[in-house]
Amino acid sequence: MGQMSEAIPVVINGEQRQVPAGVSVTRLLAQLGLAAARVAVERNLHLLPRAQWDATAVEAGDRYEIVHLVGGG
Question: Residue 69: is its pLDDT beyond 90?
Answer without folding.
Answer: no
